[in-house]
Write a structure and sequence with these properties.
mainly alpha; elongated
Length: 74
């Protein structure tokens, strides 16, 4: 009888796990060497600008009065 050979495929799972660990270590190393979580930055922004004065808008005319309603009987 022929022997069943179940080789192959097991290395793919191990490669995925090792790759994920390499990525995690790289991210942690980047955070540690760049100051990461403990780096305090003080940002002080002082902006002072004056807005230009616009000319006064023209006055809107009054709306016309509606005509009077007709009266019954007359």
């Amino acid at each position: 009888m022929a022997e069943d050979s179940n080789t192959g495929g097991g290395g793919a799972g191990m490669a995925f796990i090792v790759g994920a660990l390499v990525v995690v270590v790289a991210v942690l190393a980047f955070l540690m060497f760049s100051g990461g979580f403990t780096q305090k930055k003080k940002v002080d922004v002082d902006i002072s600008a004056s807005a230009p004065q616009l000319p006064a808008a023209p006055k809107v005319p009054d709306a016309p009065k509606p005509p009077s309603a007709p009266q019954p009987g007359g």
